[in-house]
Each structure stands twice: as C-alpha cells, then as structure tokens.
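Run folding on both entries below.
>entry_1
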Amino acid sequence: MSVITPNSPSQRWLTPIIIFMAVAAAAALGWAVISIASPTIITVVVVGLVLAVLTVVRAEFGLALLVLINYTRVSDTLIKYQGFPSVAKPLVALLVVTVLIHWLLYKEPPRGWDKPLILIGFYTLVSYASLLFASDQATASTAFSDLLDDVIIAMLIVLLMQRFQSIRVVVWSLLVSGTFIAAISVYQYITGQFTNAFGGFGQAAIMNIVGESNDYRIQGTFGSPNSYAQVLVVLVPLAFDRLLNERRLLARFAAGFALVTVVLTIIFTFSRSGFLALAVVAFLTLLHYRPKLETLLIGLALAAALVLFMPAQYSERLSTLTSFLPGSTSSAQSEVSFRGRINEYAVGFLMFADYPFLGVGLKNYPANYLEYSPRVGIDPRREQRAPHSLYIEVAAEQGILGVLAFALILIAVFRGTARAARQFGEMGLRRVQSMTSALSIGMIGYLTASFFVHGSYPRPFWLLVGILLSVANVAAQEYRIFHSQQTGRAPFDLSISIAQTYEQE
C-alpha cells in the first residue's frame, strides 16, 4: 500500500478522514484528561492516537508496529507485567480499517491474497475439525481461538505487504524487536540481575543445565529458553544480510549490533535446539553469501571474542548432544531431558496411530499424555508433558490431515520465496533478492529448532508464514508488471523505479 498523497485519485476523501480522526483524537484526549488520573495511561492514549493517524496515512507504518508488537510478545508482556490493556487487538482492528480505507476509498485493493487464504484456511478448518476428538474441550476451544487470532494476523500481513518497500520495513522491524529484548538479556546475564524481570522483558529462571547441575537460563519475554532461542535464530541471517548490504554506515552498525546481541542471547539460553538451529543457519548463510576472505576473518575474530562471554557450563551442556552419535560411550537415556524427550516423542506416535486422521485434538497432547506414557515406560514422571516437537505435536493433535495442511503451507512458503528471489534478481533488485534469501534461511532455522520445540508460542511462526507468503506474492505481482513494461504492454510503474534507484545508490 502506498502513501496517501495529494495526487491520489480519491483525494477528496483525505481531508474529511483526517478532520474526523483529529476530532476523535481531541475528544478521546479530553476524556482521558478528565477521567484518568494516571499520567502514564494518558501518555499511552496520546501516543496511541498519534500512531493511529500515522497508520491510516501510511499503512507500512502500521505493518511495522504489527511486527514489532507481536514477534517478541510485547503486548502479552505489557498485559501480564504492567496491567496494560491489549495493544495488539486495537492495532489489528485499526489495520483492518486501514486496509478497507485504501481499498474502498483510494482504489488500492490488496492483490494476491486468495492463495494464502486457501492455504491458511485449510489448516484452520482441519484444526477446528480436530476439536471433535478433543477430550479437553475447554483447552481445545481456547487454543482454536488463539489460532484464529494468529492466522488473522498472518492474513493481515499479506494484505498489507503489497510493494517492494514493505519487505525492507518488515526485515528491520524484526531486527529492531529482536534486538530490543536481546540487548536486555545480554545486559541481564552480564550483570547477573536474574531476579529483575525488567518489566517482563527479561525473564529468567533456574533450570537444569546438565546432569544434576542447575543455573539461570535466559527466557526473554517467552518464559521458555528454547522458544526464545528459536525466535532469535531467525534474526541471525537477517542481521548478517543487512550488515553486508545496507548502504548507510549507521544501518550497518545497527545490523552488526543486532547480530552480536542475538547470538549472545541464544548462547545465554543454554538451548541445545537453539544451538543446532544456529549452526544450520550459520552454515546456510555462509554458503549463500560466500563472504570475502577479509569479511570471513573478521567474523572468525568476532566469534572468538564471543567465546569469552560463553557460560562455563555451556560447552558441557552441548557435549550431551554427542550421546546420540554412533559409538558414543554415554547413553542418551542417562540424560534426564533426553530420556523425557524420547518418551514424549514415542507417546506422540502412539496418539497418531490411535487417531490417524484428525488427531487427539488441538493442544490435547498434554491431557492424554499420562494415558499413553506407561505404554512407553521410559520416563517415570507422572505428570502432564508437552510433545517438545512441533511436527509430532501437529501429527498427534491434528492427524494426517493436519500434517498435510501444515506441509502445504511450508511447501508454498519455500517454493514461493525461491521463485521470488529469482524474479527479484531478474528485475535487478539484488538487495531485495538478498533479503528474501535471508528470510528463507531464517525460517529454516526456526523449523530446525521446531524438531525439538513444540508450538507453545505459535504467533512468531504465523507472522513468518504471513511475511514469506507476502514476499512471494509481492514478487509475483511486481514481476508481472515489470515484464509487461519490458514488452511495452504496461505503463511506467513508480514502485519498481524507486526500488531500482535504491539498488543503484
């Protein structure tokens, strides 16, 4: 969506809309001053009204806010720790209104939303059908309601990301949101302020490290070190890409700062799944970008410096990963967490075997765990457990239809982004092509960690799905225009010209 300008075809609507919003803002501000005693809340109201006006005038601004607020659970954290009302829900409503304003009044209908709607809609329908077999209907219904919120946000991203410029906006929004909480985590770990939650943005808890040893693990805003590391891994290739390809020195410095803080935070989570995902992402990033020798040497020196910040027990915890290697003298079953994971995976397969078509119901794996666990007999703990794998979770709770719907989304994501990267390259948009590849590698990192992390916090996943489907959609739509221009069948397109100018600077 473009910026509303005085030359817009429906310019006559602009003045009445702004006047109406100004009057509404003044009325709301007056009510806040009279009715609310808290200066903090009044400040939030004022800032919210300003952001609302900016969002309607420039939809990409609202898109950036949507990513910032939801990728790192800012809204949920403010609700839980500060007692704020939901920030995300009013923003979603405002963005829906913004889409309608641009669509109906400014004749800018969103393009290419039908295929993502079919893919996401199919998965949603399968999830709803799985409720038929749920033994814990209350949990299943709540989970489905949360899923609806997530897929609505994913589709909203598809509706908002319509031009080249929005891709860079989203990439930097992801980096800013992740760097914000990662910087807090790094400061928290270095200073040892683990009991200070930093307003909910710096959660930490004493958890098992290795064997009988326990220590603090960083959790950020997620309350889970593994989920936190999983979300941050996505940002590593994005930061590396911006470090290499941004034009301005300040932007490159910001990207470098993001890269360092994110990698350190992943280490401070002590997450083995996060480490494996980081290793995969690092390998794919180096393979794709093939940095110059001097850049590689600087990177190695930086990595060596980061080792100085590595916790004493980190390497010891990672060494337990060798328990699964052939010929290992240690037994995987001697490690408590490994033994539990094996039991949980086996239970998931048993659930899938008993309910192959639609599973045991959305988020009903824990409710059925104690019934199946004795049949496996590896883990003696008599307590509800999670599946600790997104793929086993989908199979156990939504059956073969859920697996199929999930696989179709991932196939569309990676086929679409691969095609998009090729199309951006043909249009001469190398920087946009590079960002597309970085997003794909980030998603691979997220899915790698998903082998060992279930969907406790699924919203980042759906945000990424919406973003990657949008990137493919933008490339397809703009390539069609570009190709028509090349053959003289379409008029000059300003968006493509702006993007090409950015490439040449």
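>entry_2
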Amino acid sequence: MAWTKYQIFLAGLMIITGSINTLATKWADDSESKGRDGKVKKFNHPFLQAVSMFFGEFLCFLAYKLMFHYYMRRNENDEEKLPYSIKGNRKFNPFIFMIPALCDMTATSVMYIGLNMTSSSSFQMLRGALIIFTGLFSIIFLKRRLRLYHWVGMFLVTGGLVIVGLSDMLAKKTGESGESNSIIGDVLIMLAQIVVATQMIVEEKYVSGSNVSPLQAVGWEGIFGFITLSLLLVPMYFIKVGGKMFETNPNGQIEDAIDGFYQIFNSWEVASGISGTIMSIAFFNFAGISVTKQLSATTRTVLDSVRTIIIWVFSLAIGEEYFSLYKLGGFFVLLIGMAIYNNVFNGLCSNNTETLIITDDAEGEEADGAHSQDIIS
C-alpha cells in the first residue's frame, strides 16, 4: 500500500530530527567557548546536556495539553475522535513514570559522557546493544520465550558491536574517535543500554497497562527527569573528583552547571547545539510515536537505521572521523542483526508479525509510553 503524503512527512521528520538530535549534541561537545574561569575550552557538560534533553521531552507534555484542548473543542468533547498520540487514560498516578524517568536520566547522562569521548556514528551504532539486554531481561523478568530469529539477531548484533569497537581501537588519526579514551566512551555507551533495557522492562511491566497517551507519557518522564537532574546539579557542583574526564570544570567538579551556562551564552555554536537537542528530541518523539501508529513499529526500526547512516555520512563529510572499513562492516552486521531480531524482513510483507521491537529514544531516547504495542511476546 502506498504511503500518504502525511506518512511520508512523518517518516522524513523522524529521520531528520533524530539525526539532528545526535549531531547537535556532538556539535555542542566539539565547540569551544569561554567558561566562568575565563578559559576557552570545549563544552564538556554531559549532565547539563541531559537536563536540556529532558526539557525537550517536557515540551511534549505542553504539546499534549495544547493538542488535547484543541481537538476536544474541535470534536465537541468527543474523546473517541482524539488522535492516537493524545488518546488515552487521563486518570492515573503520574508517579508510575518516576522509575522509568530515573532510568532514562541515568542512561542519558552516561551516554552523553560517552559521546564526549567517541564519535557520533559510534555513539549511534553502539546503542544497538539495547537489543541484547532487552532480550535477556525479557526472559528473566517477563518470562518470555525468544524465537530462533531473536537469538540469531542478538548474536549478529553482538558481532557488529565488537567490530565497531575494534574499529575505534584501531583508529589512530588525530581527532578521530580512535583516541585513547574512545574505548572508554564506547564501553560507557554500551553499559548505559543495560539501564535503558531496565527502563523498557519496567515500563512494559508496570506502565503499559495504564493506557496513558504516548505523548503524555513522554512528557511526564521529561518532567520527572528534568526536575530530578536539575536538583542533582547542585550537589554535583560541590563534589570535586578531578581526573581527565572532569578537568574542564574550573574546580574539577562532577558538573559545573554555572560554567556550562557561561559557555552557552558565550558561544552561538554551543547555544545552537543545546537548542538543537531540545527541539529535535521533542519533534523526534512526536514523529516516532506517529510513525508507529500510522505505519508500524517495523517501519520505525528501518527509519532508525537510516538515521544512523545519515549521522555517519555527515560525520565523514565534516571530518569528525575518517572512513573505516571495519566500521562499515560492523554497521552492516548490526543492521542485519537488528532487522532479523525485529523480524523486519517478514514485517515488510505482512502486518501480522510477532516481534520484540526495540527503539532507542533516549534518545530515551525516547519512549513511546505504550510499550505493550511495541514489545509483543
């Protein structure tokens, strides 16, 4: 069946905003600006960046409220005519999103630390480790039985991750992701997927049955994540740990948000990167939710792979990294593994597929708030 113009628009919006999200965050990381200590340095504030990401998710909550009141007035208070992204139960305890938000907060912060150490393409590819951990956790905690194609997909994804990591280890050129700390960044990104997998399992077990609007669910996680991490920035300012990872903060703190704001206001490049992160995550969540409903979760997985290609090509074009056959091979192994795991090849020919669809939101990516429709036993 041919796609409508609106569906093509949604697919394009998802690919573009998803790509911008990672590239904008990395753009801020690589930009130099004067901090509160008067020194010009790169923007190394992963926790402050995570706060901005959650603020972007909070914008989804505002969008939900505006859309809800608009469509209710338009449809004469008939909730049955509401769009999928805002239709759902409105009588629920918002604190059911607290634990998923804390998981999202932890994973996003760790991944942003890793992104500071490696390339944006490696960052995007290594997030494929989510499939492995979610598959294993679904067996342990949800008592699911994976089919053979799930195991084959997980095996190939593991192989792809090893190859991508190997490409970073072998890269030796200055400025490429293969610098000495890139492996640490790669490991942090993959470890963060354990937390993301935990988030998805918790949402599947305790949240999905509440039938909350996906856009509202993303918004509530954004609210809890934004408030919690903003409060944590205060003690982080006073905890001095030193070390190379935190040497750009004036006193070697875990996070110096004041220094970060100085750098944002002193550089249009940093400000543009942060603004891009905020706006792109909001539109990406909306587009991702809509694609899942209008088309399918399988299509969403395919589009997410296109996003990875765009990020890598752009990174090569601007000279952030150098072309590597190892990374190209690793990406294709990852791509095939994810496609097999998500039953994409069968899903493209049939709408009645039984899959365990995994999406990254993150940038909590994002979560669509209705994982019972994305993760099916």
